[in-house]
């Protein structure tokens, strides 16, 4: 928490604008893994960092592929279902952007590009820390990691609020979204015994979800508070359904240690 807060302070003081913070995002994405690697070298040199972080082994490959396909399908269906329900209940209207279909073929490339940034966070959260918290079980470890993951982003979000690029309600909704998403990412780590499906899932958040939310319906950002929170609450219910499905899959797995 101290490091993201330190980075965000100049923005809070008005010394830097949000564009600079955006440029620092790729660097900050890898900070958790770099910190944990340094601590690992100091305290657990007899163990492989790659193994503890579940970066390897990548065999058997079948669970990794199957779980990656699960998270891909789930996180493609989730935003489509959310937006369909929003239109059905009158919270949004259909509004296909002029660039939507032109951008669609490039989405896989964006997913691959963002996976590089996602790996920097996931090697730490769903990789190394998930291994350390394995004795806590799926629910407790997911909640702990989700809470800290959400808190990690708050200093940056506050910076965007101060600069006028984000509303307080967006900060709250984004923080809860991260917390809920953590249960899905931790779940695919449990199901595959590998961090790689979590990397795929994290990359999809920044690509597929953003693409669907911003290209096929009206934006919710300028809506009245009641509409905003109705939409946000509905989206959380969709997340809870996905979490329930993921948790059920984890429960059925005979070996649930990451």
Automatic annotation (TrEMBL):
Q: Which domain of life is it from?
A: Archaea
Q: A GO biological process this protein is involved in?
A: CAAX-box protein maturation
What InterPro entries does the entry give?
Answer: MmRce1-like (IPR042150), Rce1/LyrA-like_dom (IPR003675)
According to the UniProt entry, its GO molecular function terms are:
endopeptidase activity
Q: Which residues cross the membrane?
A: 20-39, 60-81, 101-120, 132-151, 171-188, 195-216, 228-250
Q: Does the keyword Transmembrane helix apply?
A: yes
Transmembrane helix as UniProt keyword: yes
Q: What class of enzyme is it?
A: hydrolase
Q: What is its EC number?
A: 3.4.-.-
Under the heading Pfam families, the entry gives: Rce1-like (PF02517)
Occurrences of domain CAAX prenyl protease 2/Lysostaphin resistance protein A-like (ranges): 107-208
Write the protein's name: CPBP family intramembrane glutamic endopeptidase
Q: Which organism is it from?
A: Natrinema soli
Q: Specify the taxonomic lineage.
A: Archaea, Methanobacteriati, Methanobacteriota, Stenosarchaea group, Halobacteria
């Amino acid at each position: 928490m101290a490091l993201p807060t330190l980075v965000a302070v100049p923005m809070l003081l008005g010394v830097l604008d949000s564009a600079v913070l955006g440029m620092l995002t790729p660097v900050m994405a890898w900070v958790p893994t770099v910190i944990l690697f340094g601590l690992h070298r100091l305290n657990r040199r007899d163990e492989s960092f790659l193994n503890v972080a579940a970066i390897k082994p990548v065999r058997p490959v079948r669970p990794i592929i199957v779980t990656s396909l699960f998270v891909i399908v789930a996180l493609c269906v989730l935003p489509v279902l959310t937006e369909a329900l929003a239109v059905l209940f009158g919270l949004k209207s259909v509004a296909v952007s002029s660039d939507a279909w032109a951008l669609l073929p490039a989405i896989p490339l964006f997913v691959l590009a963002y996976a590089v940034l996602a790996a920097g966070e996931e090697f730490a959260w769903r990789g190394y820390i998930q291994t350390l918290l394995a004795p806590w079980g799926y629910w407790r470890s997911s909640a702990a990691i989700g809470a800290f993951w959400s808190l990690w982003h708050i200093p940056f979000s506050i910076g965007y609020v101060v600069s006028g690029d984000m509303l307080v309600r967006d900060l709250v909704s984004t923080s809860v979204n991260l917390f809920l998403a953590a249960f899905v990412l931790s779940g695919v780590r449990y199901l595959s015994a590998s961090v790689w499906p979590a990397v795929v899932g994290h990359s999809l958040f920044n690509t597929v979800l953003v693409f669907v939310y911003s290209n096929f319906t009206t934006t919710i950002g300028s809506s009245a508070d009641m509409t905003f929170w109705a939409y946000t609450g509905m989206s959380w219910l969709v997340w809870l359904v996905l979490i329930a499905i993921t948790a059920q899959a984890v429960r059925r797995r005979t070996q649930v240690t990451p």
